[in-house]
Specification:
heterodimer; A: 101 residues; mainly alpha; 5 helices; 0% strand; extended; B: 233 residues; globular
């Protein structure tokens, strides 16, 4: 695959949804159910964004990935900032990898 | 709110976003390098896409050997939320007919920038939006460049572990959403379970599996959430 082609096409499908509605105000008057689904889409995407790739990316050391994301979740759930959450997750993952490898 | 918003105020409001974006983009820069892209290509992604989840999704699919069409459709799907964010932003602009203001606001409306701008409580003008978008954008692009260049100086175990920052960012977003509303976790679990089943159980392509899992979980969410809970009351 041509990387340049991918980069520019992805930029297009990112920027069109962001910019176009500002020039089409009627888009805010879609049916309620469609609107509701659109608002829920980011939440629904999170599950598939994390699993199973957070585990499979680590191959046989998948436990490092699992404990890493679990840490990030609980830090943020207990009101930790995204920065602290990511750093704690990284620390746990490194620790598990050092034990496993 | 008293007085007109200024460029300086936009930069001030955007500085926490700068810090978060810089650190997250470090991981992205390193990811583009380990995926075999050139420095120019890595920077170009952040310059032209300027989207955390979209870019990470794109690279994940690229690395798993997905087809170009699958990548574009997946990225488009994950970006559909912007249609609504941008639509709701129209009413907050000081001059809804200013084309430069609409272009800057549209280009810069990431999740975080949207949230800050939406809760500002004043009509958004050109000066403020330029400051807010500029500082966040610089953090994202600069982080990508530093991550690409400095990434290899990190010890191998750190490099390997840095893959987790991507997923940690998503898990962190999930943690915050779950704290606000417990049922978020059920929508999350459905899409995680379906995606794992399709990919590991049925060896389905990552791109297609992602779309199906996301839509199924969205419809499930639409059943268990009230209109008030998603903020369209």
């Amino acid at each position: 695959m041509n990387a340049m082609e991918m980069i520019l096409l992805c930029a297009l499908v990112t920027m069109v949804p962001r910019i176009l509605p500002l020039f089409m105000p009627f888009l805010s008057k879609l049916p309620r159910f469609v609107k509701k689904c659109m608002m829920l889409l980011p939440v629904a995407a999170l599950g598939a964004l994390i699993f199973p790739l957070a585990l499979t990316d680590f191959g046989t050391e998948w436990l490092a990935g699992l404990l890493g994301v679990t840490t990030a979740f609980f830090v943020s759930y207990n009101k930790g900032s995204m920065f602290v959450s990511i750093l704690s997750s990284l620390a746990v993952t490194v620790a598990i990898l050092l034990v496993l490898v | 709110m008293a007085g007109k918003l200024t460029l300086k105020e936009g930069i001030k409001d955007g500085s926490p976003i700068f810090v978060g974006y810089f650190t997250t983009a470090l991981a992205f820069g390193l990811l583009t390098r380990t995926s075999g892209l050139r420095f120019v290509e890595g920077i170009l992604i952040s310059l032209t896409n300027y989207s955390g989840s979209g870019q990470f999704l794109m690279m994940n699919l690229y690395n798993s050997g997905a087809l170009l069409l699958e990548i574009c459709i997946s990225v488009l799907f994950i970006n559909t939320r912007y249609l609504f964010m941008a639509s709701s932003l129209v009413g907050r602009l000081e001059d809804p007919n200013s084309i430069p203001l609409k272009l800057v606001s549209g280009f810069g409306t990431t999740d975080e920038v949207f949230a800050v701008a939406s809760f500002k409580g004043s009509k958004l003008n050109m000066q403020y939006m330029c400051g807010l978008v500029f500082i966040s954008y610089i953090g994202w692009v600069l982080g990508t460049a530093v991550g690409y260049v400095a990434g290899t100086f990190l010890p191998e175990v750190i490099q390997k572990a840095s893959v987790i920052t991507v997923y940690a960012m998503f898990a962190s977003l999930l943690g915050g959403e779950t704290r606000k509303l417990t049922k978020t976790i059920f929508v999350f679990m459905l899409s995680a379970a379906l995606n794992s089943l399709f990919i590991i159980g049925f060896s389905m392509s990552v791109g297609i599996s992602f779309i199906i899992s996301m839509i199924a979980a969205t419809l499930f969410g639409a059943r268990i959430y009230t209109d008030e809970e998603v903020g369209i009351a």
